[in-house]
Design a protein that fits this description.
about 40% strand; 3 helices; five-stranded antiparallel beta sheet; elongated; four-stranded mixed beta sheet; Aldehyde Oxidoreductase, domain 3; about 150 residues; alpha+beta
């Protein structure tokens, strides 16, 4: 299915893939988007739905995003690309209902050296989680539920 969000235009040439999708994410698509001969290191982070949180069993969750989420994600990617000497950067996040084990977010950076890629990938996922308006609705095995990151 196509994403519900209009693609934003990057201001940085290293930003190769930025998307919010309502279907399964592809690690291969993220890695392929960063393919170039100048990259000696590529660091990938995959966030998956786990079966527990804060001592409670999780049965599933849903992600919702504000209409500005893709633009905000693009801004985060551009900023990280400006701060780190990366040759490529990608970030995709899922919305909708997810089951245990589903991929929720995939981010990656490529650079000439691994250290830069590790630092840039950490900054990318941490900034994304802090600034992009995507909210998690968790369902617990005891019948309770919780919104995470909602305003």
């Amino acid at each position: 299915m196509p994403p519900k969000y209009s693609a934003a235009v990057s201001s940085h040439p290293a930003v190769r893939l930025v998307d919010i999708q309502d279907g399964p994410l592809s690690v291969d698509d993220v890695v392929k988007s960063l393919d170039d001969d100048a990259s000696g290191g590529l660091v990938l982070f995959v966030g998956r739905v786990r079966n527990h949180d804060d001592g409670k069993g999780v049965t599933g969750l849903a992600y919702s995003a504000h209409p500005t989420a893709l633009t905000r994600l693009q801004e985060v990617c551009d900023r990280v690309a400006e701060q780190y000497d990366v040759s490529g950067l990608a970030a995709v996040h899922r919305v909708g209902d997810l089951a245990i084990g589903d991929l929720a977010v995939v981010v990656a950076t490529a650079s000439a050296h691994r250290g830069t890629s590790f630092e840039a990938s950490r900054a990318l996922i941490d900034t994304l989680k802090a600034e992009v308006p995507i909210w998690k609705h968790q369902l617990f095995s005891d019948g309770t539920e919780e919104w995470v990151g909602a305003p």
